[in-house]
Amino acid sequence: MEETSDRLNPGITPEFDPKTMRSTKPGLKRLFITTSVLFSFLLGVPFLWKSVEIYRSPLPFHDIDSLSDQIESTPLRFPCNFHAVFVGFQSTDAETLRSQIQDGINQLTHQNSQCGSCNFSLTVTVQKQDDQCSETLAHSSTTCSYRCGVIKRNDFGVGVDDTVDESLNHVFSGCSEESGKMYSVVVVNKENANGEDEVKAVVGKRRHSWIVGNGLEERYGDMVARVSEIFVKVFMNGGREEDSIQGEFMPVGSDGRIVLSFSLLNSNPRDWVYDWDFQRIDEALLAPVTKALAPIANISVESQVLYHTPKSSFSSWDKKLQSYVFRTSDLPFFVNSNEWHLDTSAGASGRSKILQFVVYIPSGKECPLLLQLPNGEISKTNGFISPMWGGVIVWNPGNCDKDSESPSRNTISPQDLEQIVEIFLGQFRQLFGFKSEAIYTSGLGTYKILPSERGFTEWELDVLSRKHTCFNLHSCSTTLGSLSRLVRSLPRMIIKDEIGEQVKYSLKAAKLAQSNASLGGYNSSASSSREARSLAENAFFHPSIMSVSYFSYEHCFAVYSPFFLPVAGHVVLAALREWKRYKQEKAKYLTWLTRKKTA
Fold this sequence. Notes:
Layout lengths: L1 H7 L20 H23 L9 H13 L4 E10 L6 H16 L8 E10 L5 E4 L24 H11 L9 E9 L10 E4 L4 E6 L6 H17 L20 E10 L5 E4 L2 H15 L5 E10 L8 E3 L4 E5 L25 E9 L7 E4 L10 E4 L3 E5 L13 E4 L2 H18 L7 E4 L2 E5 L8 H32 L7 H22 L3 H19 L2 H5 L5 H46 L1
Parallel strand pairs: 1-2, 1-4, 4-6, 5-18, 7-9, 7-12, 8-16, 11-13, 12-15
Antiparallel strand pairs: 2-3, 5-6, 10-11, 14-15, 17-18
Pathway: Glycolipid biosynthesis; glycosylphosphatidylinositol-anchor biosynthesis
Protein name: Phosphatidylinositol-glycan biosynthesis class S protein
Keywords: Endoplasmic reticulum, Glycoprotein, GPI-anchor biosynthesis, Membrane, Transmembrane, Transmembrane helix
């Protein structure tokens, strides 16, 4: 009605102030254009965010934490079946013997449940002189039963240790694969031909040991202690004084590889030059060793001959020995890292372990060269080891008189080369924590250990498998845990699918190793744990992580702000300014309408 009245009275107009009023409604064209430009920028933000998005393959964080908690809370233990057989014992009760042996084992192990120890079951058999047996079986349905009368006292003669070892292995054949390995100790109460009370204790190269002596039943308490000692200190701990082999000091690379590098060093080729037929020794002596250790490490062998390789230390002439000597105090300076170019393996990656075994041939000025021990005696092997590095043998030519006219060219004889390799195998055993000599001595007596042509006996390989499996699983858990914490702390870290697959397969291999260990699969658990550790290391040291480990929001802002911030700032300011102008003009128009109504 008011608009109609205004039209009917055009002559009547309210007081108009151009500063605070306007008679026309403000247009939306400028505001629409400005806001359209602003919204086009806003619509491009998701595309920009997608273009700078960091790809992160999903990692099983829960499984990684679960593996770490399981390894820490429940140490991995391997099933071990112990079987003690007492032959020629008349009045001894099997149940009593079993109870006493089990108490002795518990005292030696202190009921320790550390990773790599044995979850043992014990069976005791007493075989009387008339071949009648009383037996106490372990509480396990998979324990093999002993066939009474198979072991004869007359079989344990003098000089037949290898035959006895093979016969015992035949007696207990098939028992080791059911649930864990079978370890046996046979105590034979047998009169010696000379009538002496000598007690002979032998540990075979399989998984069997035997004690032979006269009057053992009267001192069966000592026999119980020795049987317990063999089970714990020999079969469980590998004849070491410590309870376990420290995995971090085992010479195996994080990728599960070992490179055995054999080098023949001619100190001064002007005096003489020696070569060797290493391929024949590799096939005859080293191949069985690498095959035996295959579940623990992937071992490759290489050799080389170097010249002009003097040592760093000095030697002195000993008139009494009529030779040059160097002492143990000179060993840290013997290896000449400047002249001995030993690290020549092209096949070994950065995480493989290279063990150097060096045959040093001295020059004519210091030949013969002997190693003098701290007690003044001369070393029988004339060599030494360096932990986690390798070993050195000083080999003196048969004739130290050098030819002044021209250097003689010789080849080390096969007999000398076999002796050198045997010394190297002893050093290799020492690097793995075992003793080089074939004797184990304790407070209860001395045990003869039968050497194996493979360098390691079967029970020593079992010890290595148990300890190395535990170390690999612990290292795998630690590495995956570190990777998990790193990825969680850096949300902009690139995680490729390859890393996710390596983590997944590493967890799968670790679980498989735990399962095989609980079932008594020593070799399979060692192989799976080695694979788990290698995959975890590959994931943690992946090149994509090492090259671009962190791409933060600050970095993203610093890169893209010079391109988009100036334009975006002007667009936002223009939109705000246009919106403010539109509100002001609309307020003027509303003021005009109000004044017009009141007029």
